[in-house]
Amino acid sequence: MSTRNVDTPPSNLASLFRGLYARVADRLGVDPSYVSRVARGERRSDAIEAAVEREMRQLLKHTKAKPQRSQQQNHNHNGTGRASKAATRAKR
User: Fold this and answer.
1) Mapping DSSP to helix (H, G, I), strand (E, B) and coil, where does residue 63 land?
2) I need a labelling partner for 81 at 20 to 30 A (CA). Which of 3, 7, 68, 75 fits?
3) Domain for residue 85, yes or no?
């Protein structure tokens, strides 16, 4: 896994998780379908559960979602989210 941060909107997180079960399976020497069954709760394995959790943490650690542009534009300089009365009057 790369150690760089990736600016990724939440809609693209699914593609980042693709291959997670295969990576865990390779690391532990088991079949990816078994990892999948453990993740879905059909089977129980503390080692696989821990490995899946570690892998998910690594993926999330290397991602950060960008705020949407509309959210950035709605914030004013004083951080309250509201324009002051003077600023509102000045716009009129």
Assistant:
1) strand
2) 7
3) no
